[in-house]
Write a structure and sequence with these properties.
alpha/beta, 117 residues, single chain, five-stranded parallel β-sheet
């Protein structure tokens, strides 16, 4: 049986256009702004991701730390691309699609770091 594609929840520090830009690879993804969580604290975002089966995508170190303390679910993709454009984030998630799918399927993994090569 083929696993469903990963659904991503983009944190407020990432562009709200990313779910639309990546819909072909990550259908069902959303941005915190689109679910009424633009000004929410990390607990609310974590809970929403947990309840909705999302992987949190963020630049925020707080979610990295939380993934170490609490484990998964939800899982966290921590983007370590520095000062970058929305296109850079899109390209990184496109170029690492297989890695993201493997991460999503790994029941023991809690954190995936995406950094510049």
């Amino acid at each position: 049986m083929v696993a469903p594609p990963p659904r991503l929840l983009f944190d407020q520090n990432l562009a709200p256009s990313l779910p639309r830009l990546l819909a072909d690879l990550y259908p069902g993804s959303t941005h915190v702004r689109d679910v009424g969580l633009a000004a929410a604290d990390d607990d609310a975002i974590w809970s929403h991701a947990l309840e909705g089966g999302y992987i949190i995508v963020t630049k925020d170190d707080d979610f990295r730390q939380r993934s170490f303390l609490r484990g998964a679910p939800p899982k966290v993709i921590w983007t370590r691309l520095g000062n970058c454009t929305t296109s850079d984030i899109e390209d990184a998630l496109r170029g690492r699609h297989g890695m993201v799918e493997s991460f999503a399927a790994d029941s023991t993994a809690a954190l995936l770091v995406i950094a510049r090569p």
